Each structure stands twice: as C-alpha cells, then as structure tokens.
C-alpha cells in the first residue's frame, strides 16, 4: 500500500471528497446498486435507507459464495438398492445392512449418493468410451504379438520393457477417451471383513450423505455363499484426473480411520484408486493384457503437492 494514500484522497481544499468525484460511486457501481434495488424484496426496501444496501449486499455475497447447491440431487432416487433423499441415513442403514442384504434381492451393490454432487449421468457417454477402450485393447493385442515376434530370441527383459511401454500407451489412451466422453468417475477401494462391513459402511455412508467424501459410494451385498472374506466398498470421486479432489477424499478417509488395511499376513497396507473405465473394460488384477488395474496408490497420492 502506498504511503501517500491519505494524501491522494485529500482534495485541494483540504476535504476528503473532491468536487468532481462521485459521491455515489462510479457508473458501474451505480448500475449494480440500482439492479439490487430493482430485484430486492419489498421487506428489504422497508428497512432504513442506510441498512438497505448492506442487507442486499450480504444476501448477494451469500448467494455467490455458498459451498453447496441448495437443490439436492440423488442419481439413485427411486431405486430400492439405494438411499433416498427423504430417507434418514440411519433408516437406510437399517433397511439395507450389507452383511445380510442378499444379492438376489437388490443386486450386487448397495448405493448412496452425495446429495450435493453436481455431476449428472446425462454427461457420460459410456457406450462410446467402452467401444473406444475395447478397440484400443484389441489393437494392443495385435501390437503385442508383433513385438513378441520381432524380438523373438532377445533377452526377456528387452521384450518386457517394450511391452510395458505399449501397456502404458494404451492405459493413457483409455483414460483420455474416458475423459473426453465425460466418464471420469473413479473410486478408492476399501476391503473390510464381513464382520466389520456394517460398521465401515456406516461411516462411509454418513460422510457421503453429509457431502464430506466424493460423489457416491457403494458396498457389495451378500452373495448367498456365506462369504466371510473382505467386502468391497467403493468411495467415488467424480474425476480421476482431479488430483486435488482425489487426495481430499483420501485424507478424509484417513481422518475417519479407513485408509489402511492389512494383508493376509497382517502387514499394514494402503488402499488403491481405480477409474471406472478400467472396471467397465474388465481390467482386473489378472487381466489378459497385463495392465495395472489401479491408477493410484494411497502412498503416492499422499505425497502429491496439490
């Protein structure tokens, strides 16, 4: 700030408003104030004059800085397998406890949406994304055969290096196609035991309904086989390329005590993030293309500077 600020504000006669200055502000400000008056409710205009603009300005600021939309939205509204907008989270959890909810009754998954999400399914072209992805994977198979034929007899590490370069190229192309077609969802994956799934899902569901996690979450139902192994919970974010949001959700999961899991040997492990496009294309842990099925690990995401 300039040291001469006060001197700059003093007019030639020693006053603080010069004869040619506008007491009511410049033209843009006057236009803005008139628009506030014209759009103000009668109750506001009945206030004393010195409070009218203050009240309207505060209302205008609140409207433009609100962190959550005022209209709630549920992408699963009307579906029996999901929480409804008018359904308390506690009632939803009681109606569909994942430990005992049968797959034969509601399907493979129980869902809950973040009611404050601005994402809409109409912006997602999964048909085109899946078709493009399938074409890229088919092309990879052809190119892989060519590499293996051209490098036959060469050291295995040479062949592996070349194939890994091809794999990274096709992964990048698949992700680019998904982004181009609005199919940007991805998820952090949790694997609580069957005995603990109701508790963990309850934590995730409440945080999702409060708008504290990502756009949605889902949990696997009981398959009818009395499965006691880990149940998958997916905590979604709306854009796998938005590192800031992906990390934000991870940090919230850590705060909730959910971002660590143990291996079958009792070793502490992090969690993985997988884009939905990899799920749709069946890029699993043992996929035929040898592609890495996850996009991020929690350890690397925690190191991001975003």
What does this structure look like?
There is one protein chain. The protein has 306 residues and is α+β, with helices and mostly antiparallel strands. The chain contains 12 helices and 8 strands. It has helices at residues 5-9, 27-39, 42-45, 49-65, 89-95, 103-106, 126-150, 156-180, 197-209, 243-255, 276-280, 298-302, and strands at 109-113, 186-190, 216-220, 233-237, 261-262, 268-269, 272-275, 296-297. It has a 6-stranded antiparallel β-sheet with strand order 1-3-4-2-7-8. A hairpin with a 5-residue loop joins strand 5 (261-262) and strand 6. Helix 7 (126-150) packs antiparallel against helix 8 (156-180).
Radius of gyration, whole Å: 28 Å
Shape: globular
Proportion of beta-strand residues: 5-15%
Q: How much helicity do the residues have? A: 40-55%
* Oligomeric state, counting identical vs distinct chains: single chain
Main beta-sheet annotation: 6 strands, antiparallel
Report low-confidence residues grouped into runs of 5 or more: 1-26, 28-34, 36-66
Averaging pLDDT over every residue, what do you get?
81
- Read across the widest sheet, the strand sequence of neighbours is 1-3-4-2-7-8
Q: How many strand segments?
A: 8
How many helices? The count is 12
Distance between the termini: 30 Å
Order of helices and strands: HHHHHHEHHEHEEHEEEHEH
The structural class is alpha+beta
């Amino acid at each position: 700030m300039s040291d001469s600020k006060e001197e700059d504000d003093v007019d030639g006669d020693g006053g603080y408003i010069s004869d040619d200055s506008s007491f009511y502000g410049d033209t843009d400000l006057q236009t803005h104030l008139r628009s506030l008056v014209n759009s103000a409710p009668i109750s506001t205009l009945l206030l004393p004059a010195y409070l009218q603009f203050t009240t309207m300005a505060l209302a205008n600021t609140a409207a433009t800085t609100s962190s959550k939309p005022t209209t709630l939205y549920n992408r699963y509204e009307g579906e029996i397998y999901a929480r409804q907008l008018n359904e308390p989270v506690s009632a939803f959890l009681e109606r569909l406890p994942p430990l005992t909810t049968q797959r034969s009754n509601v399907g493979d998954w129980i869902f809950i949406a973040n009611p404050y999400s601005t994402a809409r399914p109409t912006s997602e072209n999964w048909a085109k994304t899946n078709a493009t992805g399938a074409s890229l994977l088919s092309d990879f198979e052809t190119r892989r055969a060519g590499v293996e034929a051209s490098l036959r007899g060469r050291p295995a590490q040479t062949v592996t290096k070349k194939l890994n370069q091809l794999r990274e190229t096709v992964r990048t192309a698949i992700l680019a196609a998904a982004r181009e077609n609005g199919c940007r969802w991805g998820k952090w994956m949790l694997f609580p035991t069957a005995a603990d799934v109701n508790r963990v899902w309850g934590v995730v569901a409440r945080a999702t309904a409060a708008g504290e996690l990502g756009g949605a979450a889902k949990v696997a139902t009981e398959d009818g086989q009395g499965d006691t192994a880990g149940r998958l919970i997916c905590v979604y974010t709306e854009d796998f390329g938005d590192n800031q949001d992906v990390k934000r959700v991870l940090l919230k999961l850590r705060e909730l005590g959910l971002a660590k899991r143990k291996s079958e040997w009792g070793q502490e492990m992090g969690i993985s993030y997988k884009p939905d496009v990899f799920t749709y294309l069946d890029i699993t842990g043992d996929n035929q293309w040898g592609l890495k099925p996850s996009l991020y690990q929690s350890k690397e995401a925690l190191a991001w500077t975003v």
